[in-house]
Amino acid sequence: MKKTNSSLENLSKEKSVITTKELMENGYSHYFIKKMQQEGYLSKIKRGIYAINCNIESQYSEIKAIVPKGILCLLSAAHIHELTTFIPKNYQFAISNKSKIVLPNYPPIKLYYWIG
Q1: Which of 17, 56, 59, 87 is the most buried (most CB within 10 A)?
Q2: Rounded Cα distance, 116 and 95, in Å
Q3: CA distance 58 to 66
Q4: Up-side HSE of residue 101: CA atoms within 13 Å toward CB?
């Protein structure tokens, strides 16, 4: 798996979250993706989205993959931009009321819907 680790490190330089489609385009099979997950190189965020464990900078990049069109809002935004010392219990995102998003159990995300 040394080859796997080095190739994942190359991928992680570009991003810390990757989709199954992107992994397949880089020559990984479903079997190999599962094996990398079992050995700890990848963490499954939700169906089709993985975090590369070589270089995860923050949960925020993972969450942006789960809520791609969401806008960080309220206390979460204040915390990320260091405008408060309060640490929110969940990440708060504003999304369009027409958006359909399936949330994983972790990390905790609260969605606020707006008309638009």
Answers
A1: 17
A2: 9
A3: 14
A4: 23
Instruction: Output the pTM of the full model.
Output: 0.54
Task: Calculate the CA 4 to chain-centre distance.
Answer: 20
Cα–Cα distance between 105 and 44 in angstroms, integer?
12
With cut-offs at 50, 70 and 90, classify the pLDDT of residue 81: confident
**Residue 66 in tokens:** 């789960």
- The first and second tokens of residue 101, run together, are 């998003």
pLDDT in tens, 11-34: 766 777 788 998 999 888 999 899
Amino acid identity, residue 62? Answer: E
Summarize the chain as % helix, strand, coil (round to 5). 35, 20, 40
